[in-house]
Amino acid sequence: MITYGELTDNELIFFCQAKDSLALQTLCDRYEPVLRRLLQTHFLVGYTWDDWQQEARIVMYRVIQQFDGKKSPALGWLYKVALTHRVIDLIRREHAQKRIPRLETIPLDANPARTADLLTDPEWAELEKYVGLRESLVDYVQSLSRFEFKILLAYLHRQTRRETARQLDCTEAQVLSGIGRCRRKLETLLGQRSA
């Protein structure tokens, strides 16, 4: 009978790669101090010790599947790096969730009175203007030639005509002409929008 605790990392890795779950658990137990040290400096709301152990087990499994004893550095180092990256990913995901706006979605035909209130609300009108402006800006950018678009970007980054001409390998007169075309296209688009 095999006593997993007495096996070396490489022997346990061999068994893990052959889908032996006891060998995987033995490695996870052996490297549990790495997880504990990592959790002393990182915290995620709502994660229990069991959640962390499960994440650590998944990371260990992935590391073992990619492990090559001849080419790979020590298992402990690979595991620590992979686990650190996983913890950082989870923290990043948690912070991203906080930035997602919590908007109430309502089917417009569910409550006609509420829909009428929403559509006459001044905030709704502002949103409608914003959406229309955004669509107009997309149309504007799509109406520009590649050269005009590059000139617009340079203009927005406050580059001088000389810098822009040097960057785009053209004359300052061509840059000035391009700025004029960009301006006229924008004025035309805004004129159509207000009409």
UniProtKB/TrEMBL annotation:
InterPro entries registered for this protein in UniProt: RNA_pol_sigma-70-like (IPR039425), RNA_pol_sigma-70_dom (IPR014284), RNA_pol_sigma_r2 (IPR013325)
SUPFAM superfamilies hit by this protein:
Sigma2 domain of RNA polymerase sigma factors
Record GO terms (molecular function): DNA binding; sigma factor activity
Gene3D superfamilies reported in the protein's UniProt record = 1.10.1740.10
Keyword annotations from UniProtKB, A to Z: DNA-binding, Sigma factor, Transcription, Transcription regulation
Q: What biological processes does GO assign it?
A: DNA-templated transcription initiation
PANTHER family for the chain: RNA POLYMERASE ECF-TYPE SIGMA FACTO, RNA POLYMERASE SIGMA FACTOR HI_1459-RELATED
Which NCBIfam families does this chain map to? sigma70-ECF (TIGR02937)
- What is the protein name given in its UniProt record? Uncharacterized protein
| Source organism (scientific name) | Levilactobacillus bambusae
Q: What is the lineage of its organism?
A: Bacteria, Bacillati, Bacillota, Bacilli, Lactobacillales
